[in-house]
Amino acid sequence: MEFRDLKKQYQVLKERMDKAVFEVMTDCNFISGRQVKELEEKLASYMGVKHCITCGNGTDALSMMLMAWGIGEGDAVFVPDFTFFATGEVVSFEGATPVFVDVDSDTFNMDPVSLEKAILAVKAEGRLNPRVVIPVDLFGLPADYDHINEIGHKYGMKVLEDAAQGFGGMYKGRRAGSLGDAATTSFFPAKPLGCYGDGGAIFTNDDQEAEYLRSIAVHGKGSFKYDNVRIGWNSRLDTIQAAILLVKFDAFIEYELEDVNKVAAWYTEALKGKVKTPVVPEGCYSSWAQYTIQVKNEEERTALQQKLKEQGIPTMVYYPKPMHEQTAYKDLKPYVPCSNTVSLCKTVVSLPLDPYKGEQTVRNISQFINDCCCY
Ligand SMILES: *Cc1c(COP(=O)(O)O)cnc(C)c1O
C-alpha cells in the first residue's frame, strides 16, 4: 500500500498530464512560460488574493516574504514548535531569531495563548524586536487566525501564513492562503497540491510587495532582466511544473479535495473512541495533508507502527522532534514552555491517506488499529 498514492493519481490523470508536459517540451518555453502566468492567475483567484508569485519551493517562498518585510538581525519571529523545520529555518537564514510557541493538542496548530505569552516574554527581555508571527496550517487545517491576527496586530507585527500543507483548507468561509497579511505554499509532491518536483508560491494583496517579490525571485531585476536594482536570487517555478499543476489543480477542485475529506471522515468514524482522532473546529475545513491520530504513549506508537508494517500498511511520524530540541537550535533560548509539542512528538502517527483510497481500505486499516490499541 502507498502512504500517499501518487502513482494512482498519475494513472487517473495520465492522458491530460502527458499532453500538458509534452506541450512544454514541444514549445521549449521551459522558464516563465505562459503556463506559469496562467497558474498564478488561477491560484490567486481561488484564494481570493490579488497576487500569486510562484517560486522554486515553499522554503524560498517563506524566505522571500521575510525579505520583503525587511526581517533580519535583532528581530523575533514567532513560529510553532510543532512544524516542519523550514518554518523556523527561514527565520534564522534571514539572520532573525525564531521564538518557538506551543501548539494546541487537539488541532496541532499554534496556541494563541502561548503566542501572547511568548511575545510578552520577548518584550520584557528587551533584546529582540517582535516583528512577525508564522502560523502553520498543519496537516491541512488552518490555524486560529481570528485570535492570531488580533494578537499579532496588537503588538504591531505581521502575520505570515505558512500554508505549505494548508492548500485548499478554509477558515470561516475564507481560503487558506488568504488568512494572514501574506501567505506561502509549497508544491512538494506530497503536499495537498503537489507537482513533480519542487515548487512554491507566495500570496499577497499588496502591489508593492508583489513587485518586490517578482524582482528578488529573478536576481533583483528592475524594468528588465539585465537591469538589476537590488540583490536577489534565482527562485522560479519551472514551466513544466506549472503545466503539471494546472492539470492537478483541476482535479483538486473537481473532486480530490472533496474525496480526501470523505476518506478522512471514514477514518474518524471507524476509529472513534479507540484512538484520539484529529479535531476540525467549527467553521474550519481541512485539506488533509495528513490524517494524524494520537495514541497513549511512545511505546504504544512503536508497537502499532510495527504491527501495521507487518500488514503492509505504511505510517509516518510527523514530527518526532520539537523545533526547540533540534540540534541546530540547541543554543536558542526558550521563552515559553512547549509541553504539548513535547507530548505530541511522542504520541502522533499519520495514517495512509489520499483522495484515491477506498472505503474498504480505510475500514481495514482502522479495524487493525482498533484491535491493536485496546485501552
Ligand atoms: C513542506 C513545508 C515547507 C517547505 O516547503 P518546500 O517546498 O519543501 O521547501 C514549509 N513549511 C511547512 C509547514 C511544510 O510542510
TrEMBL record:
Task: Note the InterPro entries from the entry.
Answer: DegT/StrS_aminotransferase, PyrdxlP-dep_Trfase, PyrdxlP-dep_Trfase_major, PyrdxlP-dep_Trfase_small
GO MF, one example = transaminase activity
User: What are the entry keywords?
Assistant: Aminotransferase, Pyridoxal phosphate, Transferase
Q: What domain of life does the UniProt record list for this protein's source?
A: Bacteria
Q: Which PANTHER family match?
A: TRANSAMINASE, UDP-2-ACETAMIDO-2-DEOXY-3-OXO-D-GLUCURONATE AMINOTRANSFERASE
Family statement drawn from the similarity comment of this UniProt entry = Belongs to the DegT/DnrJ/EryC1 family.
Q: What is this protein called?
A: DegT/DnrJ/EryC1/StrS family aminotransferase
